[in-house]
Each structure stands twice: as structure tokens, then as C-alpha cells.
Amino acid sequence: MIELALGMIAQVLRISVPYALAAIGGAFSERGGVINIALEGILLTGAFGAAAVTIATGNPWLGVIGGMLAGALLAGVHGLVTIWGRADQILSGLALNLLALGATRGGLKILYDSASNSDRFEGVPALGRPDSAFLSLLGQPLFLLAVAVTFGAHALLFRTRFGLALRAAGDGPRALDGTGLSVNLHRFGGVLLSGFFGGLAGTWLVMEQHSFTDGMSNGRGYIALAAMIVGKWRPLGAALACLLFGAAETLQIRVDSDVVPTQLLQALPYIVTLIVLAGWIGRAHPPLHLGEPYEREKGRS
Amino acid sequence: MTARRGTIGSGGDVAAGGTRGLGGLLRAGWVVGLAPAVLAIGGGLLLGGVLVSLLGVSPFEFYGVLAKGTVGSAFGWGQVLFRATPLVFTGLSVAFAFQARLFNIGAEGQMLLGGLVLAWVGASTGLPGAPLGVALALLAAAAMGGLWGAIPGLLKAKTGSHEVIVTILLNFVAFALVNYLLTRGLALPETVRTAEIQEGARLARLTEWFPLFRGAPVNAALFLACGAAVALQLWLRLSPHGLSLQLLGEGPGAARYAGLSVGRLTVLAMTGAGALAGLGGASFVLGYKYYFEEGFTGGAGFLGIAVALLARNRALWVVPSALFFGALSYGGFVVNRLVPRELLDVLQAVILLLFILFDQRLGRKRT
Amino acid sequence: MNPAVEFVEVTKRFGAVTANEQVGFAAHPGEIHALVGENGAGKSTLMGILAGFVQPDSGIVRIDGVPAPVGSPRAMLGRGVGICAQHFHQVPTLTGYENIVLGTMAVGGRKQLGALMKRYGLDVPLDVPVERLSLGEQERIEILKLLYRDVRILILDEPTAVLAASEVRALFQILRRLAEEGRAVLFVSHKLPEVMEIADRITVLRAGRVVASRKKTELTEDELVRLIVGGAPPPPARWSARVPGRPVLETRGLSLGRLSRFDVQVREGQIVGVGGVEGNGQQELTHALLGYRAPEAGTIHYLDETIRPWKSRRFRQSIGVIPEDRQREGLVLGRSLVENGVLGRHDRAPFTQSGFLRWGRMREHAESIVDVYQVRPESIGLPAVAFSGGNQQRFIAGRELTKKPPFLLAIHPTRGVDLKATQFLHGRLLEERTNGAAVLLVSADLQELQTLADRVLILYRGQVAYAANREEIDPDRMQRALLGLGGVSRSGAAPSSGGAR
Fold it and tell me: Which of A60, B173, C162, C169 has the CA that lies 20 to 30 A from A221?
């Protein structure tokens, strides 16, 4: 019984990891004032980057780095286009998601001559060989890294000068500018971090599955954004919210399809997200200047 | 001094058009409006050339094949027009919602559900003959799409949930719902398609009238789409509700202050958008295959965002914009033997990115 | 010795509007230098240039005799220039301490801050998000921020607007002390008695140009007024006694947010003024009347009917409203005057008939507003954004008043509007009163209230702290009530002691 419960918990955690990492990434971008719908594409690009590097080098750790860099690359474009280009943040994000979908699909064809999936590869090797699902999760270096990142992200945002300045960039950019620090550079830093975290989330997906499949992010980036809102733009809050969505997805896998049709269960995580989001909104306060490019001469604001 | 926040796709010149009558609206500022699109397309195609050279293909050959296969023959045109037809509907859908500055990312799901309803009504026994049968099927599809679109509108009005996230999530719910309905009796056994629709619900193929299309799937739904664009343009110009939507979109504070019902208009914008997207399946379901098939949208719902954007959310401009993206979509199949056809998806995304960049730059200079 | 700050032929335009034209003057170390002028004279823009937030089109700014790189707050801060702006440059969600150390090495910050607070007598909670502090406290945080950075040239833009009299006194002591330490203090204000009290030197701006820069001892207050308005001060709008008619709008026990049990009655041919420092419940009052929010308690009555503006649009459509923020609430900036002229009424007769808009009628309507309310330029096809503030406000007033509303809600109707337009609008409001309209005037400008209102109510922390009919107004008590310094209202309501926060 305990073993079953632990197994269940392990599964929830395992499913929640990519959501949590992506949601934390979203928090860094949005705390600085940049809406990041591109998270979905960042996840996908990160997954592809991790798979490609791992397959090419045979070293999964290089793959992890490759995945994070690939995510940061897409995020970097988003940052350039929206912060200095001052383009609409939602539209830029959507365009980048289309770009990521097309590019990874094309990449599959070019690199692996397949329309649907990459070659298989071994993921990051586990520490030891425990026989329980729960302990084996604890033995996953990537899982430990994800947990460390979650707490590290919280400290970075709330305990460092960079975090302070980043929050100021989203809540009071003019005040930040007045102190002589660059609003745009801090925002860009936040967006880049969202790329690293989102890329790591994609890396996790691909390491779990041991191959890249077309469109494998499957809306996780969007759910992560919802989790970030529910978690009030705080890394730990967002991670907690992700456990809820992870649980919904676990339920989807575990519930007997004779009781509820599988096709409807597929919709469960999205419906749960919708309901929570709709019920939560009044209590969540987005960063005060979210979505606005910073303009020094805007007059009073 | 003045609020100069960039509003995507809004023409500062609409106001000037407001006093010059219908002709003025059609003429107003279209040269300026076109510049970002031209620059973005040019830049995108240039980058596409670089990309294909990297893949070892001559850009001249690539664009030669692309042009010849799409607009170089009547058959190619027939294919392009066929692919542009649903894009007109989804483009109008996105443009409609954007009058109130709402992003309808849910056109994909709305179109999917609308398409299923088209097939279901179209196949039901006792359906009257054309044109009434067609009209009934279209009405039902618009209602279904409108209903699905109303959900994010209501959620936004009642709880403030952002329509972008809600419509995206609803797409996934729509996919699951359609799958479920197909397996529960709507699909023919062992397939992912529905039964064929009645004669009375079918739209004529243009190749029947103009043999030079040589069997290309373009059909009368194209006229419906163009009619919808004209109707929407007129509605936005002549109807008080159309003006209400635009005022709310361009000056939410002032509109609310003046007593416009923000909640009701939000629901109206999303419902209308959903209804338009719901008609997106007309071309495929009523005019081409005569049944609903899983995955028939081909991403037209998402591409509708690009179509509306390039058209700067003007109803009439949606038509040429849809043609352009229709050509790129079909172009993927044409060039597939040279490069992976996804390259054209990448190209579309790049053009979009460049467009929002140029639009921001040029739009700011005008104020 | 070089002047601390010297402006040389500084010009700045925003589109068609000239904010500063060939501005030149100097401020010296150890001097409190007041900058005065009407709203829109260009004071804030000029100080924005000095602080680096605004890039001038031409001209030089010298700091200690050396030209400074303009258009960079960072560079100006490096030269020792700091601003305490009218709308504070603060991150509302961060604490006072975080706001102060933002962008600096925070090591040992607390100790240093403690010393500064003691030395200048600036007592303020440091560990509360600044959005929860009063405006006076926020200002102290802002000044601490400048002192913490050891700024030698301090700009204070309208620093006394949010302060009680005793706080003003304390601030002036600090400013004097800072000047004695050899710093230059630039003090922007439009309160002339204060300027005459604290300044060593006074520079007057009018329509973007410097019209005088002299030692205080060379100026009298009357001369100063002449310099500011450019000639003799215009005569105030003419008010004449009138017997009010039947009640038009009444609130009973209206409570919403910080507004608590608010009673007011506005009759035909009467202007009732509601004054007070912003944030004392005025917004809640207007929001309840506009139907943005349902009140927590109390009722609203309109022409013998109990109404619920938050449920029905009917009341909103029958009244006239001159909004606080004309650019965001009054106009759809990108649209022409034609559309703005019928905003909110476009979907009803005569502008809509059988479901169709009647553009001809709408154009005629806009033309008549432009004509009667003297909006310049007279091109109804131009988008609203192309008009100056004064003209935008004339147009809005025209739109609302041509409805001939039985009830008019005017919220800070002349804020940021030039004197001529102000006189015009005041005249119009009084004319409406003569014609029998009931007017509720919300304004932070006591002068305006005294000029126009038949009866004045002062809000403090959501309650009426002072109420008097026109002939009984005691300006001193009104001023004190405004700042929460006692003064029992005539209706017996004691000033609130509870936290309306």
C-alpha cells in the first residue's frame, strides 16, 4: 500500500518537473515585465536541442547543456524582439512557438530522416539501482538538479540584488531606471533565465522519453504559464501549483478508461487548469508593468 | 506626453478614414499600412533563400519551383485558393476579436468543432436540398463555433481570466472532445472520418464550371469567405455595435467611462470570432471531401493569427493576406522534394516576427 | 564659483507641443532655487531633463560648469543630480529599504540609513512595502534615497502637495539644512506663499520660456503672479446667488472602500464641491456613481428614484461626466472627433437609426461641439490625440454638456489645463448651473471649489471632515480639514480616526 502511494507520489513528481521548471522560467520573464507565451516553443526547442546534442556527442550531460542553450536561444530572440524591438509580447511568443514547431519538425527530417521522432538514446544515468519507483526518482541526477533549481530560483529572485532589480523592472521600471540600472538589460536577463529553465524542462521531457517526438511539449508551456499565475509569480508557489496539474495528469494515466473514456481524460489537465485559473484570477496580481515596453520619456507613469 | 503605446495592427489612419465615407476607408493609409508587410515578406523570403542555400539547394531553383507550383498554373492557383479559403475565415475570426483588442488563439478549436457540426448536420437525414441545406449546416457550425468562442469571452468578462491562455487551453479540450465524439458514433467504424454529407449540403467545386482548374479542390466556399470579409467590413463601418467594439479596443478606459458595456462587448467579440472560425471547415467538409476527417484543419486556426496580423485586422485585407499564407502552405508540398516542407512553416513564423517588428517601428513614426 | 546647474538654450518639443523653448538660467550651490509657473509651463519637463529622463532636442545642461551628457539618469546621478519627482520613482511592491538601496551595494546600508534618518529627522518605516505608506511617508523615503546616494543637486517636484502644514515645516527645515551643507536645491511649486518663504532665488516659466530669474528679495508676490500668468491675473469666473431647485442626486450612507457613510444632496442649479487630498475616497465616490463598483452600503437617488448604476446603464447615459484623466477616460485617442463626439451615445437615436450608424449626423454633432466650445484646430477628422490638452478638455466638456444633462459629474475638470481654458470651463460650469443643472464637482483645487461651489465638502480618510455653504466657508479650517487636522464638520460628522486603509 505504502509502496503504491509512494509510486503514485513519484509519478506525480516526475510529471510535475517539466511544468515546474517552465513555470519558474515564466516567473523570471514576467517578473521583469515580459509576457512569455513562447514558453511552449522554448520547451520544444530545449527538448530538441538536448536530444540532438546527446545523440551527436553520446554525452547526456552535454545534452542537458545543449537543451538549456537551445531554450535560451529562442528566449533570447523573444527578448530582443520585445524589449528592444518593442514588439507585442503575445504575438512574438506565438510566432516563436510556430517557429519552434516548424524548425524542430524540419530538424527531425534533416537529422533523423523521420517525420515523427529522433533516434533513441540513453538519458542521464541514474545514481544506483534502487527497486522502488520513489527511490529511483530520488536517484535521478536531473530530478535533484530540478529541485535545486527550484529553491535556487526562489533565492535568486528574493535574496539577491539581481532579483531585486528584476522585480523592480516589472513593478516599477522608472524607479529602476532612476537608480542608474538598465531596465532593458534586467528584463533581458529575466527572459534569458526563462529560456534556460524552459530548456531544462524540455530536456527533462526528452531524457524521460529517450527520444524526441514531434510536438512533444503538447501544451505544457501554456499550462506552466497558468501554474505561474496560480503560484502568484513566485518560483515556489508556481512549483506547488504544478504539483496540482501533475496530479491531474497522473489521474489521467491511472484512471481506468472503462470508467471514463480516455478521450475525455486527455482533456483533464487542461480543464483543471481552466477551472483553477478562472477561480483564482481575482487573487493574483501580475507585475504592475507586465506587457509594457519601457519608455523613458513616456511622461508620467 | 501623449500615450503612444504601440497598438498592434491598429492604423492611426482609421480615424481619418472615419470622415471620408466608405471610399475613404478603403483608400485610407493603405500605402503606409502595406509597408511593414512588404518589408517583412521581403526579409522573410531573403532569409528563406539563405536557409535553403545552407541545405544545399539553390535559392533560385527553390523560389522558381515554389512560384511555378503555386501561382504558375491554374491548378496551382486552385490549390492555393482552396487553402486560402479557411484562412479567410480564421483570419476574419482573429481580426474580429481584435477589434476589441482580444486575442483569439482559439480559432483552431472553434474551426474543428464547427467542422464536425457541418459534417453531422450535413449528413443528417431529412436535410432540405441546396441552398437551404447548406445554409442550415453553416448556421449550425457558426453557432457551435460561437458557443465555443463565448466561453473565453464569458470567463474574461466574469473572472478576468486572460483570453490568450483560456483559448489555448480550450483548443486542447476541443481536440479531446472531437476525438471522443468521433469514437462515440460520429466516425465510421475503424476510421477517423464521418459519413458523407447529403447532396443538399454540398458546395460546388469550381472545376465543374472552370475546367482549367483541372480538379483542384477550390470550391464555392471561397465566395462565402470573400462575402464574409465584405460583410464584416461593412458591419464594422455601419453598425453601432461594430463601432462599439472598435472604441472599446482602442480606448478601453474611455469606452468604459462612457458607459459602454465592457462585459457584453467582450462576449460579443469572442462569440463573433468563434462563429467565423466555426465556418472555417466549410471549404473542406462541404466543398471538398464531403466529410469530416481528423486533422482536417491543417493548423488553419493558428495561421489565422498570422493572416489577421498581416492584414492589420482589416476585414478586406484579410483576403489577400490569406492568399499569401495559402500560397506558402501549399508551397510546402510543392518544394517538399527539395527541402523539408516545414521550412515554409519556419518562413511564415519569421515573416510574422519581422512584421510585428517593422509594424512597431513604422507605426511609431506616424504618431 | 561655477553654478551647480546651468541650463543653456534648452529646447524640448513633444510632437507639436513645445514644452521648453530656449530655456536658460542657473542655480548655485547652497541655494534653494524655486521654479514656478502654471500647469503646463514646462517645469516638470525641464526637471526631467536635468534628471536625465527626458532628452532635450537642443541645448546644454552644465553641472558645476561642465556640460553633462543628457538623456541618461545614470549619468546625471553620477554627477550628483537626484530627483524626488511629483509621481515618486518607487517600486510600489518593494519595501522602503529595498527602494532606497535598489541599484547600490547594500552592504552596511541600514547603519548608514539610520544615521541619515537621525541627522535629518526623517522618521519612516523601512520594512513595509511603500504602497502601504502615506504619500508623505513615501516622500520621506524618496528624500532618504537621494541622501543615501549623497546627491549634491536635489530636485523636488511639487514636494508639498501631499504634506500637512507641520510636515511642510519639517521639510523646509531639512531643505534649509541641505542648502547650508552646500547643496543646490531645485524646488518646483505653484504655492506662491511657500515659494516666497523658502526660496533664495526664483525662476518663472511661462509657456515653456523663462520670463524671469531673480533673487527673492527683488520680487513681491504680486509681481510673481503677474510674471506667471503674463499680465494682470484674469478675473475669476462670475458667480451669482441663485435659489436651488428640487433635489436631483442624493446619496445616503454611501460606503465603498475607504469612503464611509457619505451623504450628499445636489439640487437643480447648484454646484456641490467635493475636495480633499487625493485618495481620501473621491475615487470610490465617482466609481460608485459611474457604476464601476457596487457600494457596500447606502443608496443613490436620482430624480425621486432609487438607482443602481452598477446594474443599469440608464443613469450613466442620462448624466454628463467630465472625467479625471481626459486621455484615458475621456477620449479614444486614435479616433476622430466625429467618433469621440458621440462616444457612449453612438448606438442610440439620433446617431443610430434602424440599426445603422448615421455618419452624417455624427459629423454634424462634432462640428457643432467644435464650433460652440471653440476647439482648435477646427478639423473634426483629426484624431483626438492631435489636439492639445486644453482643446481636448473643451471638446469633452462640449460633448457632455450638449446632452443637457440634469446632473453633471465633473472630476478635476481643469487639472493640467491652461488658464484660458480653465476660465472658459469655469464659465461653462456656472452657465450650466444657471440653466438648472445639478453639478457635483470633485476637485483637489480649493481655489476652484471656492470659485464655483454653492457648498463644499472636504473628504478626509473617506469621511466628511468639513462641510460648509459658500458664504460660511472658513478657508483656514477647510485647509486644516483637508490635512486631517481637526475641524468638525457642520453636519456633526467627526473626522475619522479609524484607518480607512
Answer: A60
**Residue at grid coordinates 445616503:** C252
pLDDT, residue B15, reads 36
State how far the Cα of C364 lies from the Cα of C344, in Å rounded to an integer: 17
What is the arrangement of strands in the sheet containing C259-267, beginning at the earlier edge strand?
C259-267, C247-256, C297-302, C305-307
What mean pLDDT do residues C490-497 have? 40
Give which of B5, B177, B346 to mutate to test A binding, by max A Cβ within 10 Å. Answer: B346
Using a CB–CB cutoff of 8 Å, tell me whether C128 touches chain A: no
Any chain A CB within 8 A of the CB of C70? no
Q: Which H helix or E strand runs over A135? A: helix A133-138
Q: How many residues comprise chain B?
A: 367
What is the distance between the alpha carbons of residues C45 and C42, in angstroms, rounded to a whole number?
5
**Interstrand relation of C407-411 and C58-63 (parallel, antiparallel or unpaired):** unpaired
Give residue B27's pLDDT band: very low, low, confident or very high (50, 70, 90). Answer: very low
How far is CA C66 from each of CA A216, A258, C4, C179, rounded to the nearest angstrom?
61, 82, 10, 21
* pLDDT at res. B103: 96
Please say if the pLDDT value at position B25 is more than 50.
no
- Poorest-confidence range of A212-216, C115-119, C489-493? C489-493
C-alpha pair distances (Å), B238 with each of B18, B28, B264, B314, C335: 11, 17, 19, 14, 16
Report the candidate in C149, C129, C124 with the shortest Cα–Cα distance to residue C139. C124
* Of residues B237, B240, B251, nearest to C332 (C-beta): B251
**Do the chains contact at A167 and C87, CB–CB below 8 Å?**
no
Pick from A167, A181, A296: CB nearest C103: A181
Q: What are phi and psi of A201, to 5 degrees?
A: -60, -45
pLDDT, one tens digit per residue, over A201-242 is 999 999 999 999 999 998 999 999 999 998 999 999 999 999
Residue A195 Cα distances to A47, A73, A215, B169, C365, angstroms? 12, 7, 18, 22, 54
Q: Sign of the CA dihedral C317, C320, C325, C327?
A: positive
Q: Is C71 on the interface with B (CB under 8 A)?
A: no
The C-alpha cell that represents C242 in the structure block: 441663485
**Interhelix angle for B59-71 vs B30-54, to 10°?**
130
Is B173 within 8 Å of A226 when comparing Cβ atoms?
no
Q: What is the mean pLDDT of residues C368-392?
A: 88
Contacts of A50 (CB under 8 A, 6+ apart): A63, A64, A66, A67, A70, A199, A202, A203, A206, A207
* A226–B350 CB contact, under 8 Å: no
- Across chain A, mean pLDDT equals 91
Which residues on neighbouring strands pair with residue C357, listed in sequence order? C352
The model carries a pTM of 0.89
**8 A C-beta contact, residue A294 and residue B210:** no
Preferred mutation among B8, B10, B257 to probe C, highest tally of C CBs within 10 A: B257
Q: Which of B20, B26, B24, B29 is nearest to B367 (CA)?
A: B29
Cα–Cα separations (whole angstroms), residue C361 to B219, C333, C346, C356, C364: 42, 21, 10, 12, 5
Tally of CA atoms within 13 A in the half-sphere of C26 that contains its CB: 13
Asked whether the beta carbons of C185 and C32 are under 8 A apart, the reply is: yes
Please name the member of A77, A91, A282 whose beta carbon is closest to the beta carbon of B309.
A91
How many residues can be counted in chain C? 501
Residue B245 has pLDDT above 90, yes or no: yes
Q: What is the pLDDT of residues C250-296, one digit of tens each?
A: 999 999 988 999 999 999 999 999 998 877 899 999 999 998 889 99
pLDDT at residue number B20: 40
DSSP3 helix / strand / coil % (chain C, rounded to 5):
35, 25, 40
- Confirm if A34 and A77 have CB atoms less than 8 A apart: no
